[in-house]
Amino acid sequence: MIKLSSEKVTLLAFCIFTFILFTVQNMAIDENNNSSNNNNNNNNGDKNSDSGGSNENVNHISISQHREKDFKENSNSKNDEEGERVEEEEEDEEEQEQEEEQEEEQDREEEEDDQEEEEEEQEQEQEEEEIGMFGVDVVKLMELQKDEDYDIDQEDQDEEVPMILTFLLDRIKDLNGFQTEGIFRIPGNLKVVETLANEGFNPEDEDLDQSAHVWSSLLKKWIRDLPEPLFSEDIIAKIQTNTVDYEFDIDNVLQSIHPPVYRYILKKIGLFFGELIQDEHYSLTKMNQDNLSVILAPTLFKIIPSANATSSAFLLDVLKNQKKEIAFVKSFLLYFKQQFINDNN
Length: 345
Prior knowledge:
By secondary structure, this protein is mostly helical. It has twelve helices and no strands. One of its GO terms (molecular function) is GTPase activator activity.
């Protein structure tokens, strides 16, 4: 058996103690390392767990984003459709408004046209009312008459006369003027005559005066009131200077009258009086070419005013001219008396 010294024993004990201490320290270090590794593993597990959660959150976020995107796309699509629909409605409303404006404009134009026509008609009616039928130039009367008579044949229009004249002549005949004693010699009621002449009358009025004398007086007044006499100053001068036994060429005188409407009027009047003085009427009316010529001469021929109207020489000239005018009217009546006979045989 080996015996060791105390020093060696002490050294050996120190070495063993150092070894044990080193071993214990290593074990402690390993244990600490294991603990650290476990902690690291746990931390890594937690991290992995967190990472998994994060991934899940990311997935959730991605899905939400897709859903939100789809929702936005759907919303945008709906908004686009709604916008298109609203735009179409606005366009339709705008077109409708434009059509309504056009219709209103057209209606307004039609109303303006109707109003203008109505105003023109009112002006024409007012003008006719203001003009009346007495004291109006024959040419003006014919212009107004032609504006109203669109259906008159050209043949009838060739010798057309004012309607007022035709009405007056027919009215006298309808009231038995050709069987009325003193027709054109006996005057009608002056007040009635003036009222009818000034205020006018409706030819279709059944309440018109029934006296032939009233209408014969109106006929004479209408002729007297013409602004231009039926016989011109040139013809009157020829009549007044006639020195051949008061003989007149009526046909030649009529052909020289212008404008033609004056000639048509004289023919119309001449045939009327030519019928009136036929023998069968004279027994009733007591009116022939002799007394009618005296009555009608002042109506057909106006006295021309003169500065020497009060002188005796002027008065003598007037009387002399009146005799010639009466003689002319007598020849005029006899001419149409024969003309009436010729036309009816």
